[in-house]
Amino acid sequence: MNSLADIASCLSGYDPNALPVAQAQEFIARLVPRVDAVESLAIRSALGRVLARDIVSPINVPASDNSAMDGYALRGAELARDGTTTFQVAGTGLAGQQFDGGVAPGHCVRIMTGAVMPAGLDTVVPQEFVQVTGDAITVPAGVVQTGDNRRLAGEDLARGEPALRAGRVLRPADLGLMASLGQAEVPVWRRLRVAFFSTGDELRSIGEPLPEGCVYDSNRYTLWAMLQRLNVDVLDMGVVRDDPAALATAFRHAAESADAVITSGGVSVGEADHTKRVMAQLGDVLFWRIAMRPGRPLAIGRIASGDRSAILFGLPGNPVAVMVTFYAFVRDALLAMSGATPQPLPMLRAASAQAIRKKPGRTEYQRGIVSRAGDGSWQVAITGSQGSGILRSMSEANGLVVLHHAQGSVAAGELVDVLPFDGLI
Ligand code: AMP
Ligand code: MG
Q: What's this model's pTM, rounded to 2 decimal places?
């Protein structure tokens, strides 16, 4: 395991008090370990799980040359260049019931989609192109070329070729692909365990009375939901009071039971609470100020208890900052810990409906509503107030406008990057 100081020394110009988003991401990628246990699951239980080994095809798919159309299989070389060619129909091949006989010159075989190509025949003429007269068909010149409408053995997958690579998050087509190889069980990495809790004496859980000056804890619900999308096991540890003993107990329990722990609140500069002190006491933790908005403060490191440890993500308390920092830093880190090969999130390029003021030197995430303009192009309007406590505007938005580190102000109509929430949030 790399120490935090070792990782920091690898990054040029590392400044924990003004860390660019990209550098924080690089740091975290170097910090997080991957789970090490593999389990074997039936295909249908593996949806959304991370493949732990390459899946190598034990067979050719398809296993033999077969027809892609309903029609007539013949030798392409026998087709005349001009006029028409007549063939005698020697028999029929169905999917799952192949034509076994030999086919003499001048003959063809009636064939259905998926049926094995009779020996020596290489071309299928779709039935709509031929004229049938008794036991003979007539094919006009030029409707097919040699090799048309024939699927070759191994065209989908050749034997010995990797069909799926380790690190892939399995999707519906992958399940079907593995079934097409006759594979009943799939090796996947074990699920990551992620504990989370909220800190702050002003927080109340749903069902409790709400005294003056208190707020209901919403972060645990957003975090829970964002974690559900990542297919990890979650451990909701509730609200932890701003009390050193309670915090220490919570962190120790998290370190013993989870691979990662996510907290919200208590990491701001000048915060009068105990969260940061307890984090520092129980592990190797850095307190960053990231050049971004929202979500500037972030604690990152490892929390230990005995011989167990967990990666710590200490997120800010503001509800919008929690979501933004989760997508900027935590999501990819948890996927990497789960064994997944990182894939950049797809971004849209959309025309900004308004001018946006922005200083170069920090990354800004603004809540936006993306829509299709009349001409089919994408446009994005910023939702009203961008205050980092305003969760309603996050709920109204359907994407985040990402204004990159070096980018300056945006003029109305200028194209900006947008991270759509669909499938993500
Ligand atoms: P902090 O980062 O602890 O200074 O918190 C910043 C702001 O976020 C404060 O207004 C907190 O009341 C609010 N906040 C912190 N944690 C939560 C939470 N779990 N749910 C809702 N609001 C929170
Ligand atoms: Mg607080």
A: 0.90
